[in-house]
Predict the structure.
Amino acid sequence: MPGLISQPKWPEGWPSFTPKDCNPKDTVSSDLKKAIIAEYGAEALRQAWIKTCNALSSVTSRIAATGVDSVPVFEYDEIISSGYKSNFDNEQALKRIRAVGCCIIRGVIPQEEATQHLEDLQTFIAQNADTITGWPKQTPAIFHLYESPVQLKLRTHPNQLQLQRLLNSLFTDPTISPEEEKAQCEPILYPDALRVRQPGQDFDGLGPHIDGGSLSRWADDEYRHTYHKILSGHPEEYDPYDLSHRRVAKPSMFPGGAMCTVLRNFQGWTALTECSPGEGGLMVMPDIHLATAYMILRPFFKDPRHKDTDQGNDWKDPEKWELDDSSWFPGTYPMDAQLLSPASHPHLHLEDTLVSVPTVYPGDTIWWHADELLVDKSLIVDLQMCHAVETTHNGTRPAAVVYIPAAPSTPDNKEYIRRHWRDLLAGNPPDDYKYLDGTGTELVLSKQNERNMIGALPIDTISAEGRRALGEGV
């Protein structure tokens, strides 16, 4: 199989999830599941389950066979133009991105410029070493930096802003006018962290997960309605790019240390170094439609292997699964991301379908949809696809990325970015980062003031377009 991950089939440090994790005293989850079954009906759920599992078999086989080639790659100049929506080039490329839910866009930042940014970032960290904190504490790979000069320059780069308009335009919102929809495509520049992972630096991090809250997907009325077509027995009609309910959903209705309160259409990485498969990079399951439908339906069905009798391969047949109204939501913990494993979500065949993304170079960007599966401890929870980060880094150079997502100008997002502008000027950590990440269950208030750091970027050097996206005058 070409291009599969260069690490064990399932790393020992990645957790697994089984019905033994079920808390019988969890009446909230139990009542919620029973209410959803009553709302949609057992027959509609079963119909959706069988359709989804049967369709998944061909998708997972294709991904396992094609490996890294499942992730589409485009050049920045190939995919974008100066217009809005109807003027964007390469409609086939955009259709491919919509179908898969992830992509690499090369050359968003000129390579020489991106390489210089890495040197400048390393200098900035060294100059402020006594002030900057990170995770892990002794040998940080994730730095608690959100407004460093390099981050602000990359975030406000005109190519970033134009690309984010394109990505936001892939989403539709029939509840608003075409003029409002166009305005909603204007990006807000959500402040996120950065990662510099050294060669040989291993971490189990977080196994496959989908950002954007976990139990919130079922518990929040608007969030659940995003998946109405799936739950009502018609997963083939589900549109992952419809913002009608998603834009007002509350993924952080169960507050936690890894919760994002902003709607990000796509999470994104901007690479500052070359990174190939096996060098500590990103892993994704490159499917958005069926993987999401499966994840939403999975809690309502019981694996036939729960019985004492030997079921062999009966679990592969979705018709052998029984309705489950227990309190167990597989891999679902209210204050965390949605977690996945082969044990809890067997039809996804994650051992074979979680693939490393192709090699990226300085200035390239990686993007993945709100509901797609990924793995990386360094990511903050949002609406996203199943993803992961390789547990080992076998390369000879650092793997450095800056997290820059594509977030639309929805009313809630605009309110967040207005507050961010005030915090940016004052040097305060952004709302979602008031507390330090990687400190376990303890909430540790951040005392960093990035305006007071040596070499902080003067805000008036940022373009007017960039300042607006950062929150000025919004």
